[in-house]
Amino acid sequence: MGLSKKWTLYLLHHSHTDIGYTERQEKLKRYHVDFIQQAIDILTDIENGKHPEWEGFRWVCENYWQVENFLANSSPDNIACFERYVQAGLIDISLNYLNMTELADNDLLNYKLAQGRSYADRLAVPLDSAMTADINGYSWGYADALAKNGIENLFSCIHTHHGMYPLGKKHNGFWWEGPSGERVLTWVSDHYHMGNELCLVPEHGITYLLEDRYNPDAEVADFKIAEERIYKYIENLDNDAEYDYHFVPVMISGMSTDNGAPNGRILERVKAWNELHGDEIEIEMITLNHFFEILREQVNELPVYRGDWNDWWADGIGSTPAVVKHYKDAQRKFHLGKQLAPDAVAADKAYMDDVAYELTLYAEHTWGYSSSVTEPWETLVNDLDFRKSAYAIRANQLASLKLDAILADKGEVSIRPDREKLFKVINPQATKRKDSVRLYIEHWEDVEGVAVDILLQNMEVVDEQTGNVLPSQVRAIARAKEVEVVIELDALEERILRIRPKKELQKEKYRYLAVDKVNDIMYDGWQEGLRVNAHQVETPYYSMVLDETQGIVSLVDKQDGCSLLRENMEHAPFAGIYERTETKPNAWEVRHTMGRNRKKVDTMRYVSKLRDVRVAEAGAVSATVVFTYDLEGTQMYEIHMKVYRDTPKIDVTLRLHKDSVWDPENLYISFPFTTGVKEELFVDKTGCILRPGIDQLPETNQEFYLVQEGAAYVGEEKSLIIAVKDTPLLVFGDLEHHLIELSGHGDKNKNAEPLYVWAMNNFWETNFKVDLAGFYEFRYTVATVSTGEAESAVDACKSYNQGFLSMYI
């Protein structure tokens, strides 16, 4: 065939873990336990001489989750046999816990990686490698997390459907340097079923990526098709002047499916191949750690790259926005518990293990059953969706119960008749902060003998420590009255507040008010330092001009006179942009051909039209303006914008009623803000803070980002932060269909383009949840902070998302 050198094709035999893609999640847990047992049985049969033709069999456990389940569900004898084979190098363990999305935060990632590391250390086996399959990237902090847990090598099997490998090529090795400077030896391989495509598994071949003529013989892995494909595959590498190796590793599954069993018959095909063609291309089955031993021995020097490996598949979370919101709430409560009672939480290992497990399983990359889009009515589709949601729900329950217990230890009591209206307010952050906090009085309660419905605005809030009366504002909510104040607290400080009747009843302040009862005089609208009406909002911090058709058309920082709206904004703040693509020829095909845009050239795009602006509330603490829009694809799109008198923050709540539509959809929310001075944009992803489009590996995704807490525009002395509480996908730049510019290419600076929150989508053709219908409430905070440091600015996003805690005492 004219090869320039002898080649070795290394096979790494594994089962791709895709929890809920091919079967019920709990069923797949059983499957993967049994797959390890089947691998043990194959090795035992080889030892006993039952299958000498399978000599050379090796098995790679794709992640530690498989091993963890095996250890928990197997007999001591089987576990001993498993560990003997691991120590002999016949079974290998990838120390990656699961194939994850970036929804998992850094604490969770390290906690789960440490479990695999601990087991490997107990075995006293030099396991120092991790592999992932399917997923298209990882947060930059993942490199640090691997290194921190003694994982020195990463094998990545990219699935390039709607995605792409970094650095412009596959079968490529490099050192990936994390934010801390730690390095991980990384190999970017081909699709994880490439061994099946090369027809090396009898009766289990496929045609998916290889661009040769379709041949039904490939499905049964005909040996002649194997010869044709393998030689072509190796010839391409042999002719590549940049490929310096004489070997290539490929993953192989025992069946042409995710969640497939091991298959000893692969070795029959390997032996047959080597007898005929082994002098030119030798095939050998090896383990993951063995491959990296070979790579390190034969490679003298590899390039070093720093930056984020931004995941092309992170947008799956946009198909389940309600449950993701619930997950983010669980995540916050988990962190709050650790912040308020670090020793007690750390000591409760059962709790830590349980909540970490549920958080991890929801953040695992599978987002539904394989026919979720084409058969959304199917019982199994919906059953698996419920089970997926249950991971987030259980995590939230566990974290809520633990936080309740911690707050009880700090004095929280249950509702009771005739209680004093005392509340404890807690700053859970390790920094001094000023923020709003809400105190709740049930509808049936009284304050010193007077019913709350009678008192209303004649309640006041007293700081028990200082005796000062704090400005407060009362509003009615379901089954209660919400009393809001703004207070400054030191790091982790706790303060006692009391609600009591005012000594003097509140009197109506003089206002410019005509007999027609209409407030439309220029100076009308002042409320204790706030001016708010349908045309303007002014606080000590901000001056805002409203337009009856566009919404916010001017926003000025009164501290320095700078505009906080971008000059290159296309859509007004908080406007909704809805996209819908016609389903043709069918729900699967229209999505399959979308590519990396997540839309098509003929995608229909609609911008919300402002129908009404009204002042819903104004008081001593804050003012709320409601913008009511008409937007295609929704029955309701309503923005509630709350500005504060005594702190420079703007709380934004989107109330949404989404239609049920089977077509591919996207919903974006415009956040076109800036500091108004020279700035850089930073986002926080798992374990890192980075500048989109700048701090990335070459030729990676810069179309969208899955963040943890939000984004920060950082200037020299001030920053503007956008805290994203519920919907953590962000998009920068033009929303129209376009040619994709990978990082490091093109002249567009993503770091300087307008920001959109990508609230929801259902574009994927297989396993996204296709129905986005329902009622939603998504929350955000926009604020200016006096810092020129990215870390402090991003930390402010976390602080605003967590907020101050309040409780009955």
TrEMBL record:
GO terms for molecular function: alpha-mannosidase activity; carbohydrate binding. Gene3D superfamilies: Glycoside hydrolase 38, N terminal domain (3.20.110.10). Pfam families: Glyco_hydro_38N. This is Glycoside hydrolase family 38 N-terminal domain-containing protein. It comes from Listeria riparia FSL S10-1204. It comes from the Bacteria. InterPro entries: Gal_mutarotase_sf_dom, Glyco_hydro/deAcase_b/a-brl, Glyco_hydro_38_N, Glyco_hydro_38_N_sf. Residues 9-305 form the Glycoside hydrolase family 38 N-terminal domain. GO terms for biological process: mannose metabolic process; oligosaccharide catabolic process.
